Amino acid sequence: MLRKPTSSVADVSENIVVSLSEVRRLNQLTSDMLTLARTGSNMTQLDPKMVDIENFIKEVIEPYSEIAASKKRKFAEEIDIKGKMVIDTRRVHQLIVILLDNALKYTEAKDLIKIKARREKNNLVIEVADNGRGISAEAKKHVFDRFYREEKSGNRSTG
């Protein structure tokens, strides 16, 4: 809406719907994280559903391609999946958002963020690559530790 201040609400209603959907998803994510933190457990209940996987992934990444463009980053996608798969849409959506959000935070203007998705046997493989600063060898040991951050400063630009 800020990029098109003369547009009517009807003209940007699709963007508003996407934004509201993201707010709901983030609210659920916050609730899930609080539950996880309270229980001290790594157990997460999955909710598998049959979905058209290509459409699902394209819907998830669409707002991020727009964000990348607004931040002067190049965005490329290679979604090579046809048909349906059984996935937990909320968890896969969460995973893609985390990966793309990190790529956007740590990639400089004019650099490339690339997302690939493919099926290997009955597995969904998602790759996000960027030209960001990367992760130190020491931090790689902690990649799967809950709530671990390499940067301890709490820098406002990276959250």
Q: Which labels suit this protein?
A:
alpha+beta; Heat Shock Protein 90; 2 domains; 4 helices; 42% helix
Name of the top-level CATH class of the largest domain: Alpha Beta
Provide the number of structural domains: 2
- Rg over CA atoms, rounded to whole Å, is 17 Å
By CATH, the architecture of the largest domain is named 2-Layer Sandwich
- The residue-averaged pLDDT reads 82
Number of helices: 4
The CATH topology of the largest domain is: Heat Shock Protein 90
The name of the CATH superfamily of the largest domain reads Histidine kinase-like ATPase, C-terminal domain
Query: Residue ranges: pLDDT <50 for 5 or more in a row?
Result: none
How much of the sequence lies in strands comes to 15-25%
Distance between the termini: 24 Å
**Backbone shape:** globular
The quaternary state of the protein chains shown equals single chain
How many DSSP E strands?
5
Outline the biggest β-sheet: 3 strands, mixed
Biggest sheet, spatial arrangement of strands: 2-4-5
Which range best describes the helical content: under 10%, 10-25%, 25-40%, 40-55%, 55-70% or over 70%? 40-55%
**Order of H and E elements:** HEHEEHEEH
**What structural class do the secondary elements suggest?**
alpha+beta
